Amino acid sequence: MIKIKKIFIIFVFFLGLQSKSISQNTPGSFADLAEKLMPSVVNISTTTVITTQSNPFPFEFPPGSPFEDMFKEFGTPQERQSSALGSGFIIDEEGIVVTNNHVIQDAKDIIIRVNGNKEYNAKVLGADPLSDIAVLKLETDDKFIPVKFGNSDKARIGDWVIAIGNPFGLGGTVTSGIISARNRSIGLSRYEDYIQTDASINQGNSGGPLFDMNGDVIGINTAILGRNGSIGIGFSIPSNSAKIVIDQLIEFGETKRGWLGVRIQDVTKEIADIEKLDKPRGALVASVAENSPSDKAGVKAGDIILEFNGEKIDEMKQLPIIVARTEVGKKVEVKIWRNKKEIIKIITLGRLETSEDFKIAEKKEEPKEIEIKELKIKVREITKEDIKLRNLPNQTSGLVITKIETRSPLANSIEVNSIILEAQKKKIRKANDLTQIVKQVLNSNQKTILLVIYNSQNQRRYIGVKLD
Known about the structure:
single chain, Pdz3 Domain, 11 helices, alpha+beta, Thrombin, subunit H
């Protein structure tokens, strides 16, 4: 009996130690850390000039009329200013600030508020749309308190983090949470390896820092899931990936990414079985660009890249990220699966930004305008550029109104550049979605359609319209 009691006491003792250890890992307060970091986080305000062409005539030309193009030059260009808000953080006492590219893209003026009260003009040192990172310099001789980058590779799921930023223009806002997931890809940019967090992130937090409990920046808050604000799913660019881009933007004013010159796809279970690969892994080479580094090294379509520069490729999406952060001109060893065996190729990396592949990919395709005859309007699908320029929630889908005829039933209710989000409480993604709903309404007795829109000031509105 005495022996049993001793064992029980020892068990309780170790259980107590374990509970104490867990409680010590839970911060009692973030106040000291927040107070230390707040002076290094800035609020960013930008002004962008948007030019539109007004119609000089008191009438509209029929759609497709040759007179549309003939007389459009007589329209008077009208300019209006659009403002946006974002966040950033200081990484050098001389006033170098990091933020998202979409916060400052096409901005005419950039005003940065430090410590909640002092304002400075800023210039862009360099910006990279592919990673959505920009580096600014405050135009002053004042000295500032910088923060330093942490090692994002050491950040673990479940670690405590805090976000500081400028949500909805409120400034100096601190939120806390944990790292919810790693290596997230959500289809916003070419190089995605996001940290997911449940720390509350909203519009205006873009470009702000995600800190670990040492006060080091482990991420740049970039995206949220949810159209109307935080729902506990936010995404941050990992600091290790960001720092490579930031250093290049500071030194060169542009990025210098490694380039293989291959188009790749996932290795499916079926492909792995056919190729006698032990399991689906690596990146399947779909094609090789002529005279590219891979072409010169003898890489062929059908090869499966298993390892690059000593790093294993478990999923296809890993390869572009690893290649991009590798030094241009470096000779790397690439392990390839070909004809049911491993071979090694030595490839000298080129530079992505000077490649023909990149130049072709960078050519922007103009969104196609589609006429909704029943509404007498023209629309186009919303683009990523629209979302960034207008600072809309990242998952926004809908149709941008490009033209409204004077006889349109929407003429007195909605303006050009408004975005149709929903019709009859159904989400609108493509023009055909709207066309089908409009036809259903016209065939009904009520003949009234309920639209949800963002107007040209990005205000969400419900509009009821009677159709003829």
